Every structure is written in C-alpha cells, then in structure tokens.
Amino acid sequence: METFSLEDGQELVKAARHAIEQHATHRKVNRHEIDKRIAKFNHEYGVFVTIEHYPTNTLRGCIGFPRPIGPLRISLIDAAIAASSEDPRFVPVSHMEFEDMIVEVSILSALERIKGKAAETKKREVKVGRDGLVIQYGYNSGLLLPIVAVEQEWSATKFLENVCLKAGLPAHYWRRDDVFLYKFTTQVFREVSPRGHVEEILLS
Q1: What was the pLDDT predicted at 116?
Q2: Which of 110, 88, 107, 89 is nearest to 16 (CA)?
Q3: Of 204, 183, 46, 170, which is closest to residue 116 (Cα–Cα)?
Q4: Which residues, including other chains, have CB under 8 Å from residue 162's CB and lie 6 or more apart?
Q5: Contacts (Cβ under 8 Å, ≥6 apart) of 123
Q6: What is the domain partition of the chain in residue ranges?
Q7: Do 84 and 22 meet the contact criterion of CB atoms below 8 Å apart?
Q8: Rounded Cα–Cα distance for residues 98 and 186 (Å)
Q9: CA distance 200 to 122
Q10: Which string of b and e fits 8-25 if b means at least 16 CB within 10 Å?
Q11: Roughly how many angstroms between the first and final C-alpha of the chain, as a whole number?
C-alpha cells in the first residue's frame, strides 16, 4: 500500500465529514462537489469511516469496505454516509451532533491470508499494533481494525477470539482448519476535536 501524507489524510477526513454533514442535513449528498476536492485519490483501497462522540470518544458509527469497491474517492463517500446512517447499532447521526463528533478515516491494505493451520502458527502471524483481522466462515464474517486491539490492550489470542465474536461465531473458531483468516494494515487519520486539526494515528 502506498503511504499517504498528513495532508492527504486531512483532505480525506474533511471530505468524510462533509459527506456526513450533507447527508444528515439534507438526506442527500452532492457527490460531485466532494469528489472534486479529492479527485486525486483514484487508487483502489478498502476504507472505513469511524464516528465518535467528543470528548468521550464513545463509538457513534463505524462502517466501511474491507476490499476495494472502486476508487478511494468514491468508496470514502459511501463509507462516510453508511457510518452515519446505516450502522445497525446506532440511530442515524443528526444535524445537532456535528459539534460533538469526531471523524476518523482508516485506509486498508490488501487482505493477506493467514495460511497456517496450527493455532500457534496463526498467533505468530498476528502482530497487535500492526494488523487488523478478518474472519470468514460460511455465511459469517467479521472484521476488527488494528486500532481496536490496541485500545483494548488485547493479546494476539484475545484479538483472534474477539474477531470470531464479531462474526457471531464461538470465540475458539479461529483455531479451526476450515475458517478463512486474513490480516491487513491501516493508515489512520482522525480529528483531534470536531472540525479541528487532523492527525495521523500511529499504532506501533
């Protein structure tokens, strides 16, 4: 994955916020207007947008795409709208919340299959502070971003167990030979305060 500059991150976070605010206010988004501002982001990456309440840092919405669905400039807008209005855990973001929310954008590398079958081999392939995880088993799938394991201070084992739970699976299913496990890395940019300075979050 290419490395994005802090200036790139600032542009992406501002674009995500703009999409959220337009959708919450008007229930529609002027995609052409936002797209012009981030027209250079044509490479295809997975992306997640996270919304948190400020200053408590309580999660308010988080949705994205583990795999590319098109140019980053397009998928970012889709992820921002979905995070603010389609996360089933929360009611949609309202126009009264703009000054009490911070926006975070995570750009994902390509998913890399964890191929080892033995539990110890799988654990050795996962580095907390660097990797995010995806699990797929039948119709069940789950994803946890790298920052989650850091914030929760999980070990590699706890991380693997919790991605199972995220997928609605028993915690030990990561040990099975017939599950698909993937890891990925991210670059994360977030607002320090609502509409405020954007910084890159370095996990390790």
Answers
A1: 85
A2: 107
A3: 183
A4: 144, 148, 149, 152, 154, 171
A5: 156, 157, 160
A6: 6-109+186-201, 112-184
A7: no
A8: 26
A9: 29
A10: bbbbbbbbbbbbbbbbbe
A11: 17
CATH 3.30.1490.150 fits 112-184, yes or no: yes
Mean pLDDT by 10 residues, the chain (204 residues): 94 98 94 94 97 97 96 97 97 96 98 92 96 97 96 96 98 96 98 97 84
User: Per CATH, which fold does 6-109+186-201 belong to?
Assistant: Glycoprotein, Type 4 Pilin (3.30.700)
How far, in Å, CA of 139 to CA of 187, rounded? Answer: 28
The whole model's pTM is what? 0.95
Q: What is the DSSP string of the chain?
A: -PPPPHHHHHHHHHHHHHHHHHHHHHSS--HHHHHHHTTT--S--EEEEEEEETTT--EEEEEEESS--S-HHHHHHHHHHHHHHT-TTSPPPPGGGGGGEEEEEEEE---EE----SHHHHHHH--TTT-EEEEEETTEEEEE-HHHHHHHT--HHHHHHHHHHHTTS-GGGGG-TTSEEEEE-EEEEEESSTT--EEEE---
Distance CA 101, CA 57 (A): 9
Instruction: Please report, to the nearest 10 degrees, the dihedral formed by the alpha carbons of residues 17, 19, 23, 24 taken in order.
Output: 0
